Amino acid sequence: MKNRAWLLWVVLAFGFLMTGCAHQRPLVYHDDNQIPQGSGLLSGKDGTFSLQFNHLGLDGANNSPSDETNPNNGTKFSF
Amino acid sequence: MNKKYIIGLVAPLFCISALSQAAEVAISGQINRAVMTADDGEKTETYFVDNTNSSTRFRFSATGQITDTILAGALLEMEFESNPSSSISRTNLQISSELQERKAEIFFKGPFGEVYLGQGDGAANGITHKDLSGTGVVALLGHAHLIGGGTQFVEGNQTGSTVSQTIANFDFESRYDRINYQTNQFGPLTLAATIGRKDDMIYEGSALYASEFSFGKFITGIGYSTEEVTAADSNDTIGGSASVLLNNGLNAALSYSRLEADADYKSENTTFRLGYKAGRHASSIDYGMTDDRAQKGDEGTYIGLNYVFKPVGWAELYATGRVFGLDRENTNFDDITVIAMGSRIKF
Fold first, then answer.
1. Is the pLDDT at B9 greater than 60, yes or no?
2. B59 at the A interface (CB within 8 A)?
3. Which of A9, A11, B145, B311 is buried most, with the most CB atoms less than 10 Å from its CB?
4. All domains of chain B in start order, with CATH
């Protein structure tokens, strides 16, 4: 077997060198093997079918009814 | 898996939502299907597969604030793969779909970092395929066997090991039941540690550095895992990857991993990638080597060409072509050629 463990040191050294660079900011990385971020075919811009529970109706009197909000349980559906 | 079991797994997600004052349950998923043709030098076969690079799956997640600074949540992710592209072969022409648990975990996030409990990623899982080429959906860095991996090397009428058994990387311990702690980002740096078990105890650690510069983006990570083995040496894995993407679209990546199953036997995988990304298009070319995986003295090689087109945010169309070779003492295996094209749709 040809030992290529030195490649790990190259990776590490490159990383350390990069930390010295100016004007850097953290990168938000998303793995390609995960469900993509962003919009979905049916779920739209958010990319998720979501149910939001606001106060769960426990203090439902304070909820202001709207087209999107069911005043009985404070649940909001968004797609 | 029966329906009662699924309902049993999902129900706690809704309960967690009900405990918090304002909470959310989100459902998302994807379907990733492809046509794959494999030629082992003796025969060519075409299959209709699920792309194992990022299998067909769906997830339920529930989150809610339990204090002003602490977020609690639960995640259930299941995959539903029929004819996995990594396993289908001439001797295994059809593989029925099966609902399988990928993740079933609860988590807490706050100023202290992130804590995960349940089935999920180990600290180092994925550290060997950090890549900015944009072609990961069809060619995860260092994981060439995920397309065509079930194909056997042949020499005349004799069949040998499969691609997966001889040419693959060692991406630590994947997913299992564990407790995982991850720091918040110290600038571009994130550290993680995991203790869990499969048949025996597993310990993992990793460091990930991801940053944007004026010239482009850079990510690198390194990890280590050890799995205890009863009455034998532990399985120790070390590896990492690095990738740079320049503002002009040129990019490069490197992946290395090594498994030490015992004092006298080490296997290692190395993959190099060069790519170019322009707008909705991404392409890359790979060269990879795996030594001593199925047996000592084996030398597996792989060269691949990958392309991804993303016309809209929720759809990707892709194609790949790759050639696998196996050099084994006293054998003369034919090379294996695999081509595939397909699409991943997020719904």
1. no
2. yes
3. B145
4. 3-346 (2.40.160.10)
